[in-house]
């Protein structure tokens, strides 16, 4: 049975919390608190005693730094993979998450698809993330992918067959920094084991 772990990167220095950053902030680095979060996440994953895990990170520095902390403890390297990066927010760069929630109707294109003007659509991210995942599933072993908030939610919706608008509305796939989701594939179907779990920030991973 294939196991897939999705981990959101740790907290970063940058333009502030709950602000859309996209590709413009690809080189943001972890804050001191972010390094502490990564250490706690590392402890949680180590406790799961994964056998020969393979770790992937997006092309963004914050994901690579987080993945590096995990890889060190697990005794493996970090593979950088195009396609796992955060959605390109285009003209919405720098706007708040609150605006995204209250003005999301502005982001539905004439085709009916959700997307950022001057950036990517949900379908764009879904295609590239699915392509990236297809490339690495053949590697075997538990896969640990360190990625980003919206990118993770989009891929989870794709794999679990969930409508993105519905998932966004109720926040079911929201990930705090270093939150962990685990999926297992049985007979071709992905099943959720844990979603957005961040118990390691306050206690043991359930």
Automatic annotation (TrEMBL):
This entry carries the following GO cellular component terms, namely: cytoplasm
Pfam families in UniProt: His_Phos_1 (PF00300)
Record GO terms (molecular function): phosphatase activity
Look up the domain of life of the source.
Bacteria
Q: Where are the transmembrane segments?
A: none
Query: What's the protein called, per UniProt?
Result: Putative phosphoglycerate mutase
